[in-house]
Amino acid sequence: MTTGIHRRFIEIFKGIIDVSSVDCYIFRLLIAASGIGCLSCHLYSPITRAKREARRGSVGCGCCGTRHNAHTMPWRLYRYMLLDMLRQFALTAAVLVIVIAFGAAIKPLSNDSLISPIDAAIFVGYAMIPMLQFALPFAAAFAVTLTFHRLSQDNEIIAMSVAGQSYTRILAPLAALGLSLTILLGLLTQWVIPSFIGKMTESLAADIPRMLTRSIQHHSPFVQGDLVIWAEEVFLGGENGDRIVLDKAAVAKVNKQNRPTMYLTSSATSIDTDKENDESYLHIKSKNTVQWTDDGGGAGSTRGALDSKLTHAIGINSKTNRRPSAMTRRELLNAEENPSLYPPVREAIDGLRDKLILREYWRSLTAYFSVNNEMKFESSYNNQQFIVKAKSVSNGVFKGIIEIELKRRSGETSLLIPKKAHLEPEQGEDGTISSLTLSLVDVRVDVGETGENRRTELQVQALHVDADIAMPIIDNNIPELLSRASEVERGSIPRAAKHLLVQIENLKEQVISRINQRWAMSASAVLIVLLGSITAIRLRDKTTLGTFTRIFFPTVVAVILIFAGGQIVRDGRMAFGFSVMWSGNFGMLVLILFSWKKLRVH
């Protein structure tokens, strides 16, 4: 009875499908999936015999007389599954990349005075590459879930399984694809994406004059990093439009807490832009300037001048000032070997060096002053001379009764007697003392003359010592700087040395955190692919959207934990940070094993 039914079904099926044009293996899968035909050979054999032959490793085919290895997955099915999944993966990844890249451009686009539409398009183009690290895993999860859920609902997975194919062999191409995606993400996150993050930043600073001009013309401050510039009017000049002239300008530098560390106001300010070795700098000069500088002790000093300029050029979004997130793996390791390549460490080195040079300079000045208790200063502005007499001087502060004899160019002299007097140094980029400012408090001017008067505060800028004072030279060698700083027990130098050590330690934490965070993000790809495929097969009775949510939310949690763990490592809590960073991947691995066990049982 059964044999007759089988024979009749095969004859009908062969009449519908031309066996000569259909792969015999696919034909056997169709017969086996129907539940009527046999597996080993679709000629009259019982199903139990087919399963025994499948377990032995080979089956005979009645349509061609050959024997096939049932444990070898045909490449036609592999290609069918992979091509179907890759089509959806490519489409989903493209959509996600574009959407996320435009999301990254919302901040610069929200201020129309910052970038033009062309700049925005360039920015979005650069942003697409960094967004791949987020788009690819989610696109893979969606494509795998959609593909395998459809295969499961169409009973194609059951047909493969009945044909002697284990779930391991069915999922093998997906595992290989997930591993390839992990390797690709590893290459992208470690070497490619950081470069494009730097290009995103550089694209916004490609035309500093135009960006600043647009901001001022729209009556909004120009904010870039820790620099804030505002003015009533702006004019472009220079040969290539690289000079900006601001009318009634205010310039400020702020710290991480957005508190000003320096600001100046002027009637006119000129800003020269300079680009050297792919690095952009701003050189600021002002007229009729009032400048306030934070002294780091909760107060500050104010000075005014007819002409002034910032002694240090301000770097704008240059490669040197790139954040660790914009450094490739090689650049991070190079920075760890040579900490001076890392901007915060370099700034700490310069700060400690400047303080050590200033300390040696004060010691030389004190030794010279102790010989005759007076010192002559000359002004670079008007060639006036100031002869300061006092009991002693220490760290630029005059002590005892202070008298200052002023000699003008006309030969006239006058006497100034301040209650307090001290010297404030102006240091260049290499730490050398370029000039001194003599600050006087509660000073009597033209003492003994008819025009004698009293001023609360008086400052004389651009002074130079009219004596042979040796200028100390100290290299930016970290061990040497720390060795010199260890000789000082208290004051600003020990604090600067401690700050340098903290920045070096922060650099090590940044290197470890960034490299491992990128590896953790890459490793999540293969786990996401496996979790999506196994869950889609197991939940064939659920809706596609309901099945995808089982993969989407664990993936989101894993990504959040990776970046949260990286931040915790950068905060100095290594063990806890690494446990958080990899806990998301570990959780997905547990879900994979749980789903795999359920799939094997049912």
Structure description:
Helix 14 runs antiparallel to helix 15. The longest helix has 47 residues. This protein has 602 residues and is an alpha+beta fold. It contains 16 helices and 17 strands. A hairpin with a 2-residue loop joins strand 3 and strand 4. The strands form four sheets. Strands 3, 4, 5, 6, 7, 8 and 9 form a seven-stranded antiparallel beta sheet that branches. A six-stranded antiparallel β-barrel has the order 10-11-14-15-16-17. The radius of gyration is 38 Å and the shape is elongated. 32% of the residues are buried. The two termini are 32 Å apart.
Protein topology:
Layout: H1 2-16, H2 24-34, H3 47-56, E1 58-60, E2 67-69, H4 75-104, H5 106-110, H6 117-128, H7 132-153, H8 156-162, H9 167-204, H10 208-217, E3 222-224, E4 227-237, E5 243-254, E6 260-276, E7 279-294, E8 300-309, E9 314-315, H11 329-337, H12 343-372, E10 374-379, E11 385-389, E12 392-394, E13 397-399, E14 403-407, E15 413-427, E16 433-445, E17 453-465, H13 478-485, H14 492-538, H15 544-570, H16 574-601
Antiparallel strand pairs: 1-2, 3-4, 4-5, 5-6, 6-7, 7-8, 7-9, 10-11, 10-17, 11-14, 12-13, 14-15, 15-16, 16-17
